């Protein structure tokens, strides 16, 4: 399992990614808004609204990560790591709000006759789709590298923007090809895009809520930790392995069985070796609490 050396290094990488996304979203939102107004394409204006939500989501992810890497203190003895999944939940809620707003406006536009969108808006959308898809892939890769739920949410926010832009491209194309009577095609496309955004928001919120509720992580991670502990010399057996994710790291609570004749000092040394073995094998683990018990024959 390969990962950067420390939570601080991983957080710095994630924050830089959020900052880059923020700048790109600001530029794209401005371009889409102007093109939508000038080109008479509501779906492009709706896309600009979604990009504006992306800006706020990047700010939230950035802030959440900065808080999450703070050292524990008297007020928060277990650290500030929960700020990271909390940021992911807020991003997902922003997506849901954007989807609802786009849906309401799309229905209103469908009921109001309007002009056919300008052809040049298609070229704007092609550029947006390309940029957002590349950004999605890069941010998603960073989220896997740093093990961040919030960064992953930000990545899917970029993918949602690419999806809305693709829907806009299809809608405007249909309106242009169909001619009179097909002017609302871009509005129907905006409605479809809103549905896709809402589905993605729910997908993003679920793992973040799992982290907030201390759900047990993937079986593969548990197996790695168990193998590291069991493979430590003088460990007879292990039980009651509990792992929870806090921010970018994991915390382990484990019962270790050893020779009942070990002195308290020897048991303490063994617990330290188990901790070292776990953290060496699984660098994402930031803390390990060992409960030493006599081996049950």
How would you explain this protein's 3D organization?
The chain is built from 8 helices and 3 strands; from the N terminus they run αααααααββαβ. It is mostly helical and 297 residues long. The chain folds into 2 domains: 7-212, Alpha-lytic protease prodomain-like (Up-down Bundle); 219-294, 2-Layer Sandwich (Alpha-Beta Plaits). Strands 1-2-3 form a 3-stranded mixed sheet, covered by helices on one side. Strand 2, helix 8 (264-281) and strand 3 (285-294) form a beta-alpha-beta unit. The model is unreliable at 1-5 (pLDDT under 50).
Fold blueprint:
Layout: H1 7-38, H2 42-68, H3 83-111, H4 120-146, H5 149-178, H6 185-212, H7 219-230, E1 237-246, E2 249-258, H8 264-281, E3 285-294
Parallel strand pairs: 2-3
Antiparallel strand pairs: 1-2
Helix pairs in contact: 1-2, 1-4, 2-3, 2-5, 2-6, 3-5, 3-6, 4-5, 5-6, 7-8
């Amino acid at each position: 399992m390969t990962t950067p050396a420390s939570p601080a290094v991983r957080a710095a990488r994630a924050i830089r990614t959020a900052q880059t996304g923020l700048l790109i979203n600001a530029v794209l939102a401005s371009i889409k808004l102007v093109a939508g107004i000038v080109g008479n394409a509501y779906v492009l204006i709706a896309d600009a609204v979604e990009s504006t939500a992306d800006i706020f989501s990047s700010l939230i992810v950035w802030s959440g990560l900065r808080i999450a890497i703070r050292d524990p203190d008297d007020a928060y003895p277990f650290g500030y790591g929960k700020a990271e999944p909390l940021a992911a939940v807020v991003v997902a809620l922003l997506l849901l709000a954007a989807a609802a707003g786009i849906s309401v406006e799309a229905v209103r536009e469908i009921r109001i006759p309007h002009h056919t969108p300008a052809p040049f808006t298609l070229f704007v959308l092609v550029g947006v789709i390309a940029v957002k898809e590349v950004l999605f892939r890069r941010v998603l890769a960073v989220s896997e590298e740093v093990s961040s739920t919030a960064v992953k949410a930000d990545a899917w926010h970029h993918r949602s923007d690419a999806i809305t832009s693709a829907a806009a491209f299809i809608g405007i194309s249909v309106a242009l090809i169909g001619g009179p009577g097909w002017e609302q095609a871009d509005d129907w496309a905006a409605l479809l895009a809103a549905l896709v955004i809402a589905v993605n928001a729910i997908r993003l919120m679920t793992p973040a809520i799992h982290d907030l509720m201390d759900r047990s992580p993937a079986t593969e991670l548990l197996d790695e930790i168990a193998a590291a502990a069991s493979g430590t010399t003088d460990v007879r057996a292990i039980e009651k392995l509990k792992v929870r994710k806090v921010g970018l790291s994991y915390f382990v609570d484990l019962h270790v069985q050893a020779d009942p004749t070990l002195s308290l000092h020897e048991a303490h040394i063994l617990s330290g070796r188990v901790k070292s073995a776990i953290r060496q094998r699984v660098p994402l683990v930031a803390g390990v609490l060992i409960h030493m018990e006599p081996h049950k024959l």
